[in-house]
Amino acid sequence: MTTEPIIVGIDLGTTNSLVARWSVDAPALIPNVFGDMLTPSVVGIDLEGRLLVGRPARELQVLHPERCASAFKRHMGTDWKTQLGEREFGAVELSSLVLRSLKADAESHLGQPITHAVITVPAYFNEHQRQATIRAGELAGLTVRRILNEPTAAAIAYGIHEANQDSVFLVFDLGGGTFDVSIMDRFEGALEIRSSSGEIFLGGEDFTRALVARVLQSQNLIYERVEHEAPRMVSRLRRECEMAKRVLARDEQATIRIPGKDGELPEGGPTATIRRTEFDTWTESLLARTEISLRRALGDAKLRRQDIQDVILVGGATRMPAVRARVESWFNRMPRCSLNPDEVVALGAAVQAGLVARDRSLSELVVTDVAPFTLGVETCHVIGRDLRPGYFMPVINRNTTIPVSRVERVSTVAPNQTSVRVKLYQGEARRVQDNIPLGEFEVDGIPRGPAGQEIDIRFTYDQNGVLEAEATVVATGKSVRHVVTRHAKGLSPAQIEEAVRRMQDLKTHPREEQANRMLLLRAERIYQELPLEQRDLLDQLLHGFEEALSMQDPSAIETNRESLERFLNRFDGPDGERQDF
Ligand code: ADP
Ligand code: MG
Fold it and tell me: What are 526-535's pLDDT values in tens digits?
């Protein structure tokens, strides 16, 4: 009997990424090397040119934002590039580094190689963005067995597919930088997305930013100006406000230390105390924006809000009480939030991974997906007496449940026209130039005659993202097929190998060194925040630790690390965050 390799489920998020797996009869999250479930989707190159991923990179970002990249998921499927240290990176490469780090964590946790994964993407991701995600997986050494929509994953985590009742429900996902609403249907055991909507620039970071702006304003400072003139002050204050925001999710008030121009936080320095009611007032307009997308999603699904039987909260920012209260009053029902909102997508991915591994995803659980975008062909329009090309004719509409097969009829535009070039596009724009080209092919052998010879264009689109277009000349029955696969625009095996090699050139810290590396970075950050008289002490502790590291003496490393950590925790709380997290 051959045993299937373990397939992990991965939530590759804009702000945080997680990995989980199916374990016996339940999904289980896998902690990273630091013991955290959440790995920040941040990549950095330190001053020695070494690669950092996750929390160490987020630490580096406070002092050296120019050496770090975050929120690159927004650029998936585009040519965007960023310079980090000496090198340029695209979104696929950066994502692959995050995936590689999750893969390594899973491997050391499970004690075996991990080569297969289910990765989630937002429901609105288009073909290029899905392809880019698969490519990021390949670069990380993962075979992507399934791409799963995030709201579908969240619904699976809540076991909605197993409920013994059909229902219409809504997934409300407010993450770090994006807001997604999906209306879903559970019908005869299958899950379908009926509509999706949202904003790509609305999330928890905006709430933090609003708080930063208010605190600066209370000091008679203007955000945009300070950001330019004292970037360290802003990045330090942002951290303070991020912590305060989390405290306010639980307590009625929080205190923020206001850093100086260089980001220093002297003892007895200025502070500001913020009440939750104030915070809620300042961020009210952000919250109000979620309503626009909610209405649009309902409109697209042709539903009223009272038709929604269940609401699922997803995304770390839904931990804010004001968000919950708003959702509750808008729908007049308690939203589901028994699972941690920033973990549910990864849990659902792990359930799906378990089903894929047992080859039961189709028989026991039909997770149908939707085409997240419209697919169609180019046609001409008659404008006055002119024939104008360049118009988009949809064949499969956005939000259609897949697999799906649809036919549209087109006809020749000129007399004695014996061939037609079929150009395939994806997108929502009226003109093809604004949509994404997917390929083209030629149909010939059309009988001579007047204009108006008919051709049927059939599109078939399946769950694995394969689009098959077939054109049939109605008069003769002759047909031509053209297949667009996710890999069509991807890399050849040789190119993948080359890209993987290029990534492997990057020097990574040995995994056991990463924790030490992070501790050093954290200590350096705190050093700058300390009053002068405390700096000496930290300097000594750091020196001792560095010396122990260079001598590679495990017991000396251990004792020096402990005293350094104890010192740092007095300022920052364990692990660089305040205890009340
Ligand atoms: P993404 O899906 O974008 O990767 P997450 O779902 O992990 O993001 O959400 C990250 C956001 O959640 C951040 O903006 C963070 O500030 C916010 N967040 C996490 N925990 C809390 C909390 N306790 N209170 C308020 N906001 C929180
Ligand atoms: Mg998310």
Answer: 877 777 678 8
pLDDT band for position 509 (50/70/90)?
low
Q: Pairing state of beta strands 310-314 and 167-174? A: parallel
Q: Which of 46, 93, 105, 173 is catalytic?
A: 173
What global pTM score does this model have? Answer: 0.75
Name the amino acid, one letter, at 466: V
Q: Whose CA is nearest to atom 10 of ligand 1?
A: 176
Q: Which helix (H) or strand (E) holds 87?
A: strand 87-90
Q: H-helix or E-strand containing 386?
A: strand 386-396
Assess whether 173 carries a catalytic annotation.
yes
Of the candidates 59, 73, 93, 206, the residue annotated as catalytic is: 73
In which band, very low, low, confident or very high, does the pLDDT at 310 lie, cut at 50, 70 and 90? very high
More confident residue, 468 or 168: 168
The atom number, within ligand 1, closest to the CA of 17 reads 4
Digit-coded pLDDT (tens) for 492-506: 667 666 766 666 666
Q: Which residues does a 6 A CB cutoff place in the pocket of ligand 1?
A: 13-16, 175-178, 203-205, 242, 245-246, 249, 315-317, 319-320, 342
Which two three-digit tokens encode residue 279?
């915070």
Summarised one tens digit per residue, pLDDT across range 195-228 is 888 888 899 999 999 999 999 999 999 998 998 8
Ligand 1 atom showing the smallest separation from residue 205 Cα: 14
Nearest CA to ligand 1 atom 19: 316
Q: d(Cα 372, Cα 349) in Å, to the nearest integer?
A: 18
Q: How far is the CA of 318 from the centre of ligand 1 (A)?
A: 8
Report the C-alpha gap between 434 and 431 in whole angstroms: 6
Is 278 in a helix, a strand, or coil? Answer: helix
CA dist., res. 97 & res. 114, Å (int):
15
